[in-house]
Give the backbone structure.
Amino acid sequence: MNKKQISIPKVLRFSWLRAEGFESLFQQLKHQKLKSSLELSGKIYPDFVKVFFTNLEFKNDVLLSRIKGVQMEVNKRAWKDVVGLKPRGVQVRKGEIGAVPEFNKMQYYGQCLRNPIAEIKYFHVGGLKVDQRLLSMIVTKILVPRGSNHSTLNEGDLILMYCIQHNI
C-alpha cells in the first residue's frame, strides 16, 4: 500500500522569540501581523501542495486550483481566516522597488553584517547579526520557502527583510 508523505510544518513560536531575548524581532513580526501565519501548525502533504500551486490561477481576486478533479477556491475572506493576513499592503517585486525607494540592497545587507566593512561578494547569511540571521531563516524557510540554498539571500529576500524591519 502506498502511503502519502506527511511533513511537519515549519513554525515559529512567538513566545520563544520573547523567551530568547529577540524582543525587537518579535515586535517587527507582530507589527506585520505575521503571528497567525507563522504559528500555523498541522499536517502538510507536499504532493498536494505541489499540485495545488502547479494548477493555481488568479481570477477576479480569487485563487483557483484543481486537484484530482476537485475545484478549490480561496477568496480573500478564506485567506484572512486561515492565514490571518489581509490582501492589502505594498507590493514589492524584484526589480520593482518603487514602493520602497530608500531600499538599497548593498547598503541594507552591509548594515545587517556583524562586520559592516567586510567585502560583499555574495549575500550569505553566515556573516549576519543574530537577529537578521534569524529573520533571514524565517523569510527563506517559512514565509517564502524554497527547496534549497537557504544560506544565500536573493534580492526578494532582502527586500522582504527590509520591509519587515522598517515596518513597511
